[in-house]
Amino acid sequence: MMNTKHLWVLGEALMDCVMQSDGRFIPLAGGSPYNMARAARLRGASVRYLNPLSTDHFGHTLAAQLRADDVTLGTPASAAPTSLAMVQIENGQPSYSFYREGVADRDYTIAAMAEQLGGHAQTCGPGILNVGSLLLIPPESDKVLALLQSAKALGWTISMDINMRPQVARDLPAYVAAVKALMAQADWLKASDEDLQVLGWPEPSLADAPALVQALRAQCAPHATHLALTFGAQGAYLQVGDCGTAMAAPRIAVVDTVGAGDTFWGNCVADWAREPQADVHTTLRLAVQAAAINCGRSGCQPPTLQETLAFVAHPAA
């Protein structure tokens, strides 16, 4: 464990207001990077969540959940309101509408974040900086790109789950261009089949995964050594260096898929943070199983490592 690295997570935290069958909305803590931070900590990584949370009621709820999961809060709270996502679920699949103008998780400066990254690199050595999702949409992407460039200059490993939200972008071509520019900074990268379609690969499948990895490296992510591609119910593919492996998704009773990709990526990154030479097949197996457990629960509820191991040992339990 001598090479264990700290994981710092940059990205949105919001309340997923999930529509119920009677038309009511129930607020649940969410946001892709926020979910990923929780999943990685429950997997055993040392995790700091960087973006400010609001001083409003929802912000206190988000902060309380992170503290309950033992995730460190990295930035003072903001007086700006919490981001909201209105979520409708049909056949287990969520669709989202976002409310993100003037919100707390966007209330940060490049200089303040870079100062934190530099201080940690000087005292503890550079760690892993994870970013993705809504912060990759212009104009926020400009701030993120500058911060990633600063982090890389300090020796940080850049982890990215692009988790594209084309329905939110006002200018889709500009959004795609911004994401590709950010992907060029990534050392570790995750994309879903839906992300790949937005980026220009029609009908991607698990069988195509090795070729897709090579295409991503050639066209978008030349520095990515660790790549994960997810294909929903088909399963997932993981490549570390030149070693790649695929795995089908476990068959379970799906409640919904909210946070499944975040749980998957959080487990992968946590594994690499704790054991840099982790076996790629074992990493994929545990990440796929953790995502399956999450899909058997309502909303994003990532499992602990102990729960995942128990599920692997007794999948029908």
Describe what this molecule looks like in 3D.
By secondary structure, the chain is α/β, with parallel strands linked by helices. The chain has one domain: Ribokinase (UDP-N-acetylmuramoyl-L-alanine:D-glutamate ligase). The protein has helices at 32-43, 57-68, 110-124, 140-153, 172-183, 193-199, 209-219, 260-274, 280-295, 305-313; strands at 7-10, 14-19, 25-30, 47-49, 72-73, 83-90, 93-99, 128-132, 157-161, 188-192, 226-230, 235-240, 243-248. A 9-stranded mixed beta sheet has the order 5-4-1-8-9-10-11-12-13, sandwiched between helices. The chain has a 4-stranded mixed beta sheet with strand order 3-2-6-7. Helix 3 packs parallel to helix 4 (140-153). The protein is globular, with a radius of gyration of 18 Å.
- Sheet-strand content, in percent, reads 15-25%
> Mind telling me the C-alpha Rg?
18 Å
Could you state the CATH homologous superfamily? Ribokinase
Low-confidence segments: none
**Distance N terminus to C terminus?**
32 Å
Order of helical and strand elements: EEEHEHEEEHEHEHEHHEEEHHH
Give me the CATH fold name.
UDP-N-acetylmuramoyl-L-alanine:D-glutamate ligase
How confident overall, as mean pLDDT?
A: 94
